[in-house]
Amino acid sequence: MTHGTPRPSGRPGRDRLARLVPAPPGAARADPAAAPRAAVVGGGIAGLTAATALAERGVRVTLYEREEVLGGRLAGWRTRLADGSTVTMSRGFHAFFRQYYNLRALLRRTDPALTRLTGLPDYPLRHAGGGRDSFRHVPRTPPLSAVGFAALSRSFRVRDLARMDARAALPLLDVRVPGVYDRLDRTSAHDFLEAIRFPAAARHLAFEVFSRSFFADPRLLSAAEMALMFHIYFLGSSEGLLFDVPDEPFPQALWEPLAGHLTRLGVDLRTSAPVETVTARPGGGFTVAGGGSEEGCDAVVLALDPGGLRALAARSASLGDERWRGQVTRLRCAPPFLVSRLWLDRPVRPDRPGFLGTSGYGPLDNVSVLNRWEGEAARWAARTGGSVLELHAYALPCDTDRQVRQKELLAQLHRIYPETQAARTVDARHEWRADCPLFPVGGYGDRPTVHTPTPGLVVAGDGVRTGLPVALMERAATSGFLAANALLGGWGLRGHPLWTVPVRGRTAALRWAARTAYGR
To answer: Among 35, 49, 181, 411, which has the highest number of CB atoms less than 10 A from its own CB?
Structure first.
């Protein structure tokens, strides 16, 4: 893959070293009389991105989504509370980092200035032992960001840092894809931190907060994936460590405007439309079957979560070859996670942050005060005098008792914000899910790529190998653009440019140190 070179203007953010992946050349739009047809299976970020990229080049697109709403793991749906209020429930808080260039490019289709995103001033981390860390004053530009992060944190002590094995930590200084996987994929994130003797008190702050954002225990997560996250946020990008959040629930802020854009482009959006099988026709093209009907198309984008992709591939025997089908069969999901949203009859203290990471509070990983930044929650709180809180717990045991865990989260909330003990819960919603991809030790080479052995069939999603330094929501959006570009190139149509954080260590001195240590 050609990674491109920096250019002086038209950058997606403040980082002068952000890398452009140029748009593959071709015609601006398909001839309407002979425009190809494409089916996109899955209406999450990856599927919506692929549908947008294809339709903007004149491809006739049908998007199939099994749920009633678009958005995938960022979907939202209406629910009625015990007080009669109608509100939007979702699977919970997501951080839109400013390094997410391609996701933000998708959102700019309907919000050019990204006015529907609002920045949080900080996301402090609170430790059960009494410590507290903050990202607010950490410098943006590497390597000052990592140095400042350590200097400002109470979790880092000089004597602990002196014990670290600097040589073993050198892979973090020059993260490249796929080289980082060649070097670290067979090591767990936990074992890597043990090997470099990273201070135990600082692990949650500097690393585990990222591994758990993959909904995985550090003992199960590939160290390469953790190192990539360190590169994206600490040493690879100067966009900083703070992030934005939508100022309204996901449907209103993101997906309803994008659905309108797709409809104007002629996309046939079908919700509550699960696809049962996809059949590759001997003469080329595909038949997509679902809901008692069958339709033909020239190409298919499979933009599904791991379980959905496994199930559809198992029902669609003509897709791929033995190796590809084996890869799909072996895809694994991360352990379950819990999102508890509480509507309380009184406010929390005014100094409580919109988002708080936690360490040492049992299963609780973070607390959000939604009415600090989400319009719908703020209006409910203003009308009732209450507050809307959200509690997250990641990487829970598969046999966990749901009722027990929900009560544990509430008890930990009372420890952290004691004023909530006297609050009455007007209503609550609990979301239990286990459909996020797991990036296990040694699993990188077995993950599917965008391309498949079947001509005209491509795959997109946050579990797909892209060959670029992206992760989480940004990997989903990037893979959607890459999947569309692969199809557009086959039809002689122009693709879409992409941007990423730098594709190697940011500074020559750090790259030299890593190269010297490993004889490269």
So the answer is: 49
Q: How many CB atoms lie within 10 A of CB 405?
A: 21
Cα 430 to Cα 211, 366, 372, 403: the distances in Å are 23, 15, 21, 10
Task: Say if CB 61 and CB 55 are below 8 A apart.
Answer: yes
Angle, CA of 248, 251 and 256, to the nearest 5°: 115
Query: Tell me: the pLDDT tens digits for 455-493?
Result: 999 999 999 999 999 999 999 999 999 999 999 999 999
Supply φ then ψ for residue 207, to 5 degrees: -130, -50
Peptide bond between residue 143 and the one before it cis (omega within 30 degrees of 0): yes
pLDDT band at 130 (very low <50, low <70, confident <90, very high): confident
Angle at 229 between CA 49 and CA 409, to 5 degrees: 90
- Alpha carbon distance 190, 200 (integer Å): 11
443: nearest Cα among 231, 225, 228, 227: 225
In the prediction, which pLDDT does 149 show? 66
Assessment of whether the complete model's pTM goes beyond 0.85: yes
Which contiguous run of DSSP H or E holds residue 127?
strand 125-127
Per residue in 39-95, pLDDT (tens digit) is 999 999 999 999 999 999 999 999 999 999 999 999 999 999 999 999 999 999 999
Query: Do 414 and 420 form a contact (C-beta atoms < 8 A)?
Result: yes
Nearest by Cα to 195 from 204, 205, 206, 184: 184
Helices 256-264 and 45-55: angle between axes, nearest 10 degrees:
30
Which amino acid, one-letter code, is at 1?
M
Which among 63, 60, 51 is positioned nearest to 31, based on CA atoms? Answer: 60
Torsions phi, psi of 54, nearest 5?
-70, -45
Answer yes or no: are the C-beta atoms of 301 and 50 closer than 8 Å. yes
Distances (CA, A) of 72 to 77, 99, 197, 349: 11, 21, 39, 34
Cα atoms in the Cβ-side hemisphere of radius 13 Å centred on 145: 20
* Tokens, residue 270: 């079908």
Helix axes 45-55, 472-490, angle to 10 degrees: 30
Rg of the chain in Å (alpha carbons): 23
Which residues are CB-contacts of 77 (< 8 A; sequence separation ≥ 6)? 68, 69, 88, 89, 90, 251
Burial 121-152 (b: 16+ CB within 10 A, else e): ebbebbbeeebebbbeebbbebbebbebbbee
